[in-house]
Amino acid sequence: MPRPFLPALLFLVVLAPAQEAPPNGPRRVDPMWHAIVGATIHVAPGKTIEGGNVVLKGDRIAAAGTEAPPFGARVWDGRGLHVYAGLIDAYVPVEVEATEQRHWNPRITPWRVARAIDDETATELRALGFTAAAVAPSKGILRGRASLVSLAPREEDLSVPRPAVYAEGVWQSAGFDVAERAPGPPRGRPREGYPTSQMGAIALLRQSLLDGLAADERLLFDTTDELEALRACKIAREAGRGAVVVGCGTELRRLDAIAKDGLSFVLPLAFPEPPDVSSVGAADAADLRDLMTWEQAPTNPRRLDAKGVTVALTTSKIGKRDRFFRRLAEAMRHGLSEERALAMLTTTPSRLLGADDRMGTIEPGKLANLVVAEGPLFAREPVVREVWIEGRRHEVTSPLSPAAGAWTLSGGGLPSPLALEVKRKRRGAYEATLSSGDRKAEAQRVSVVADRIGFSFDGEPFGRRGRFTLSAVAVADALDGQGVDPDGARFRWGAARGPAPGAPPVPAPGPADAPESYGTPFGPYALDALPEGPERLIVRGATLWTCGPEGVVENGELEVRAGKIVYAGPARGGAEGATVVDASGRHVTPGIIDCHSHTGISKGVNEAGQAVTAEVRIGDVTDPDSINWYRQLAGGVTTVNSLHGSANPIGGQNQVNKVRWGVAHPDGMHFEGAPPGIKFALGENVKQSNWGDDHVTRYPQTRMGVETLMRDRFLAAREYAKGHERRDLELEALAEILAGTRLLHCHSYRQDEILMLCRLAEEFGFTIGTFQHVLEGYKVADAIRDRSLGGSAFSDWWAYKVEVQDAIPWNGALMHEVGVCVSFNSDSDEMARRMNLEAAKAVKYGGLPPEEALKFVTLNPAKQLKIDHRVGSLEGGKDADFAIWSGSPLSVYSRCVATWIDGREYFSLEKDKAHRERIAAERLRIVQKILGRPKEREEEGRGEGKPPARSETWHCGECGCRGE
To answer: What is the DSSP secondary-structure string of 553-583?
Structure first.
């Protein structure tokens, strides 16, 4: 082929994909030069032209101003109408079929692309004034690419191109989906597949991003609660990706942390239905957090906007889309301005989607995407007349009939005087009301077609028994008609137009009828701010249980400076410049440390989808809102070891937390510098002996298999540590165990399995952190002493399943006598409130000295977690974590009077009393508000959603620790 021909051939190849199909019959020719004249033009948020004209040429805006329309344009009368830039929905989830599986996990499908929207959804959106939408794949974890698409209807003529896709790959959609539960009772059947928990979903997403999937793509996180928004930001920051969050409607519950993270939000107007307070019992059972969420939810858009968060609105996640403007009116009544609402539907989404050069405002050169309304668009019930998409008009509501309006009636057979008001309702139907003075009657069988009207009404309110039937034609500003009175006599009647009714009012922002401040965490016992710690604090006169070299000190003194203990010993004189707490007659102990807790873990304490899940992290799903944190503070607990459950031989990574109630961000609870750990498990749970007859296929199914699996993964981790091309989060965590930088905490019961893990640790050269529960530890205490940092036991649990039939309450004391570092743990939100009494059981069962027994919940768990240089005893240089008791901490008659962490008082009986008084008053106020809510407010559209999800509580059976 001659060389000069190549450029021409390449040119044709490039052009070929852009060519359109030939017309299937005569060409369709539409007028493509239009002018809407005399309308109120909302050019952009905050910029309006009264009596303005918009000129459209082709698919673009040619002009917007007060200049006369050009000769040759088709003129549309816009008098009395309002014209806005076409609204943009920044998130519409759509089903996208995964035609192939390129990843081992079916929830990782980043190659999918959403390019279309179904006709029904597009019609719903056009009816609200939307002309473009970002469609995103709706299911999965890494779900696929979103596209910005036109909402123009599809043409019946198949030769006409489909509605435009304005941009592909505007972002990569992501979520936290987990496997579905198997059929059966919700708590009775595990989920099938990986992941089964939110921490598993996060781990899978993190690994996928590390593997380079969806590289360089901006992420769009679909969230279901405010904590997920914070987790999304953390993931995006780790991966170095830009991100946008599709919100849930409760972001206000973590407002400061979300604002600080700086992500943009696509926000649904998701307002929950009011909690049931219809009876005394229902009102008593209503949770204050739910009551407050119901009241505050409409303030969410305004609060985020005021904090500087970039917000676009979406019609998704609110049930029926036709209630969108009702929800928006409610948000505006709670302080959101009309200007900001318009920005959230036009300029902000266009900017987030990278399309602000084409849409979002009414300016020359931009796409001719407009919405025309019969009044202000932000009225509670706006009437959208039409939308224009790329210069083509799509009627939504037929023009208002000339018969609509206010009329004064006259005629031989009619009561006099008589007024008629004809109004169009939502969805295009009409209603009519007749009145004379203070007497009214609703018209029946109202029929309005073009300029004709017909109806009937009851004459009783106006002194005539029976019904009148009227019909008329609207001519200019008059009605000309005929009627039939109740006696059957025909008559002619007429009407003159009265003053035109004003446009429906736009809700005026604020003042909202919800408190402006509510503290953290959202709900009961909230703090306006974290407690301030005095620069110098002296606690004097108490009996100090130091759990250190000083032992128990009568009439002691504890001095704290800048959150650290500087002295603990006999009382001294002098306290100049110090805050002094007189603790005479009271007892002071180190803060209690719970070495096995599942408090405050969101959406699954087990990742049970695989036998080995070393990649998952409890720290990813810390829930600082759990009320059980506060209850544990009231029991003197200051530090906990938050552990994965025991559903698999190698579980997830732990997180040591301080009970810092009221922190702004969940990560504020994490114990800085605590050595990382991981949960292993042995026994019936991991081989699924107690999971039912359907779970007999996952390896391992025997105790031999558990050992083999662990050895196999350690061998793989050893090879991984020698060098690797791909970062593997699972093997990375296991390699850290071999390197001695990650502690292994193992759920264990039987002596043979305890010995097995000790020998495995010896084989691979690492020291075990703790044996958890360790119910037969007394049989092999010497091995535990030599190969681990200790045993964290139940105090006196026994006989709840076969493998604990040899458990005895003297277990802890017997291990202690052999030299094992022993702690007692709770594994229970309820038991964690009284860990001091669990320690007392070591005195009852074993005869330990009281001070030594107290160490079972203070110094010893600190040693097991390798944080004893910071906490666990009252010694100089340690964190000022301590509890003040009314009497001996091992007495059932004693109460925790106050709990201090880092030198700050997080709990006291005095503060608790004030909290309870405020809680009672708030509950009463909101319940009364719900009961007295006006009927019209019941129809605001706040009725589809369920009450917000409550903080979860995990019990032993649900986490798999007891396997019940």
So the answer is: EEEEEEEEETTEEEEEEE--S--TT-EEEE-
The two tokens of residue 465 are 């028994």
pLDDT for 489: 92
Q: For residues 7 and 3, what is the distance between their CA atoms, to the nearest angstrom?
A: 8
Residue 406: closest CA among 434, 385, 428:
434
Cα gap 128→322, rounded to integer Å: 7
Chain segment 64-115, per-residue pLDDT in tens: 999 998 888 999 999 989 999 999 999 999 999 877 889 999 999 999 999 9
Q: Among the listed ranges 281-290, 360-369, 953-962, which one has the minimum average pLDDT value?
A: 953-962
Residue 611, both tokens: 């036998």
Burial of 100 (0-12, 13-18, 19+ CB in 10 A): exposed
- pTM of model > 0.85: yes
Residue with tokens 């997080």: 906
The second-level CATH assignment, the architecture, of 86-358 is Alpha-Beta Barrel (3.20)
- Which class is 405-497 in CATH? mainly beta
**Whole-angstrom Cα distance, residue 483 to residue 319?**
45
Task: In whole angstroms, give the CA distance from residue 530 to residue 1.
Answer: 80
Q: How far apart are CA 40 and CA 84, in angstroms?
A: 9
Residues in a beta bridge with 191: 181
- The ranges assigned to domains in the chain are 86-358, 405-497, 534-590+872-910, 592-871
pLDDT of residue 937: 52
Closest by CA to 327, choosing from 362, 297, 363, is 297
The predicted pLDDT at position 282 comes to 95
> What is the pLDDT at residue 10?
31
User: What does DSSP say about strands 536-545 and 579-582: parallel, antiparallel, or unpaired?
Assistant: parallel
Lowest mean pLDDT among 28-37, 406-415, 915-924: 28-37
Inter-residue contact 529 to 569 (CB < 8 Å): no
DSSP 490-505: EEEEEEEE-PPPPPPP
Fold of 592-871: TIM Barrel (3.20.20)
Average the pLDDT over 807-836 and give the result: 96
Mean local confidence (pLDDT), 744-766:
97
Distance CA 718, CA 707 (A): 17
Q: Alpha-carbon distance 605 to 645, whole Å?
A: 6
CB neighbour list of residue 873: distance below 8 Å, 6 or more residues apart: 546, 547, 548, 590, 858, 859, 862
pLDDT(806) > 70? yes
| Distance spanning both ends of the chain, measured CA to CA | 79
pLDDT at 963: 37
Provide the angle, in degrees to the nearest 10, between the axes of the packed helices 703-722 and 751-764. Answer: 20
Residue with tokens 């999918």: 112
Q: What are residue 507's DSSP bridge partners?
A: none
Contact 768, 777 (CB under 8 A): no
Place of tokens 């929950």: 272
Q: Is 844 helix (H, G, I), strand (E, B) or coil?
A: helix
Distance CA 282, CA 275 (A): 9
CB atoms within 10 A of CB 571: 16
Q: Look up residue 10 and give its two tokens.
A: 């390449």
| Cβ contact 715:682 at 8 Å | no
Alpha-carbon torsion 648, 649, 651, 655, what sign? positive
Query: Which tens digit of pLDDT belongs to each residue from 896-920?
Result: 999 999 999 999 999 999 999 999 9
pLDDT value for 507:
65
Per CATH, 86-358 and 592-871 having the same topology is answered: yes
Q: Identify the helix (H) or strand (E) that includes residue 395.
A: strand 392-395
CB–CB of 457/447 below 8 Å?
Answer: no
CATH topology of domain 534-590+872-910: Urease, subunit C; domain 1 (2.30.40)
pLDDT surpasses 90 at 743: yes
Q: Answer yes or no: are the C-beta atoms of 686 and 700 closer than 8 Å.
A: yes
